[in-house]
Amino acid sequence: MRVALAAVVVAVLLAVGGVVVWTLRSPVTAAPITAARGGTITTDKGLSVRFAPGALSEDAEVRIVPRPSIASPHGLTWLTEPVGIELGDARLLTSATLTLPLRDPGADGLITVVARDQDGVWNGQGGTVDPAAGTITTVVGRLSIVSAGRADVAGPELAAGSGAYDAPDPECGTIRSGRWTARAEGGAVKTCVAAGATDRPALLRVASNRASGQFAELGAYPPITIPQPGGPSVAGAVWRGVAEADRNHTFLPGKGILDLALPGRYRTIEFVTRTGLDVTVAQYVVEVMSRAFVPPAVTVGAVRCVLALPASALTSGPRVPACVTGALEGERILPPGAAGPDEKLAREDREGTAEAVLAAMRGLPAVVAARGDQDDDGWRVVADRGPVIPGKALNEPGGAIPAAVVATQEKLYAAAMRDALPEALPPAGLAWSNTTLTGRPVTDAVAALVTTPPLRWPCDETARDGYVYGLADPNLLTYPARLTDLGLPPEDVGIVRQTAADGQDYRLCIALDGTWTSLTHDLPAGGFPAAEAARVGAMGPGVCRPELGGAFVPADASCRTAVRTDLDGDRRTDTVLIYQRAGRWTARAVLAAGRVFDLTLPYRRDEQPVPAADFDIDGRTGEEVILRTGSRLWLLALEPDGLALTET
């Protein structure tokens, strides 16, 4: 008596709290099923699951748990109580035959079995209805939470026109980004950016005031699409799958929103949204197949087929329905280990779904005709991030970074964004030791460095005191948990961590006067530039040597020539590198003392300066190099201010 009373009290308390417990009148059903022989489990409500021999991976106690509190997905009316089917540690290797009782087996519309996946999306399993027995039976390849319901499968009414909906300004949270700004050209979209943090990027939200859907053409930008409000849906899962397959078909629903992450390693995100005939047709296909609860992967295949069709095939003819039919027929329903007859039965169970979808597709030509040629204009959305360049330093009097160093940071960052690193700080020089590091990789590396706060450190690589940026490692091991000491807000800390997570162990030294910059990669402290200079020198002289490389030779340089001579007169042999890059010739002096000087040579693209000799001509300290081009001779020498070239 006490046990029964306690159960009633628990049920009442849970009901008051908003959760209805039905287990007192709908008990859990459990039965042992062996893997070798199979078996059937049946509830007192008439629900049964039959396992053929070898269907389960191991012996298991199969449990059927009532789940009456689970609400039906939008567009579906429950005809039976949802249940969860649990296999314990076993797995379904082939298939199972599922029979569910129906409250109204004569209901109009599509009657189908549905199952909920791990993302909360309901997938249609089809089924064969037995009106006399009042049941629906289907062959399934996976078991989870299942039920049966009635769906009305009809073509959607897709409105055309821009500005048909006065979208409110989107809400992006209470903290707006202090680093990201967003704008949209035109009135079709509205934007806002929510601030990121250490564990998440900033969020760009685009809200559409169009009544019709649009495609956002994201190109190479890898989007992170946040699930839209309203919970998981079949259509939402389809559009996510389409966007993953082709980022230029990322869907922005009419009167809806699109959320994109803005990772710290990006400075600018730019894309356009557009409408068009293909958007209308794709949206129609998605709506029809989703209302029939066709599995999202199947609908994704149909939509991709439609998007590959020429515009002329979208207005009329059989090719759009053929894409739908082909996707339905090409679906593999059961696992590969299932027998052929079982796969055939599973397909027969889905024939009603296919018929309902194809019947609804007949309304597409009318929607296309009503649309006309409207709304083909697109809108450009741009999000920009400012650099994270702190003005505070540790272990410095007052904690301030000299203005010259800050200016150098800003200049280098701007040059990186333009992919113009060779012109960033001439003539002091910019060098990188990984010869494959050019173009965007260089840009990303420099962006990672200048957005990472500085640490006071002797710049051994240049024998000059300055600031070392050595924090571009995934765990910020050089400088753990001290970013906030520099006064960075949480969003800037997040940007630094996100950027550094994609970087490598680079070092960037900027002298206190802001004049020297060297970018190195994968070299130990103290190994640059002296050790690298010795390595290049050991390769010896030679004209147009493609194998000549290293930190001092840009990866895209051509006709790489080396000369060995004592340029500065310190009785150590230095190296002069001559190479062509982007149609311009450069002479680079790499001194054994650890200094580097550059000089742009006055030669055309089709000319080739060849070292003719090296000796001391003027009697001053250091030797000179004679360059010959045709009948012209030039004298290359090291002056106090750097390399100089004079015609002889």
Describe this structure in words.
The protein is of the alpha+beta class. Helices cover 22% and strands 29% of the residues. It is built from 13 helices and 32 strands. Strands 1, 4, 5, 6, 8, 9 and 12 form a 7-stranded antiparallel beta sheet that branches. The longest helix is centred in the first third of the chain and has 15 residues, at 2-16. It is elongated, with a radius of gyration of 35 Å.
Topology:
Layout: H1 2-16, E1 29-33, E2 39-42, E3 48-51, E4 60-66, E5 76-78, E6 83-86, E7 96-101, E8 110-116, E9 122-126, E10 128-130, E11 135-140, E12 145-151, E13 180-185, E14 189-194, E15 202-208, E16 214-217, H2 234-245, E17 250-252, E18 257-262, E19 268-274, H3 277-291, H4 296-307, H5 312-315, H6 319-329, H7 340-349, H8 351-360, H9 364-371, E20 378-385, H10 403-417, H11 440-450, E21 455-459, E22 464-469, H12 490-501, E23 506-511, E24 517-521, H13 530-538, E25 558-565, E26 574-581, E27 584-590, E28 596-601, E29 610-615, E30 624-629, E31 632-639, E32 642-647
Antiparallel strand pairs: 1-4, 2-3, 3-7, 4-6, 5-12, 6-12, 7-11, 8-9, 8-12, 10-11, 13-20, 14-15, 15-18, 16-17, 16-19, 19-20, 21-22, 22-23, 23-24, 25-26, 26-27, 27-28, 29-30, 30-31, 31-32
Helix pairs in contact: 2-3, 2-4, 3-4, 3-9, 4-6, 10-11
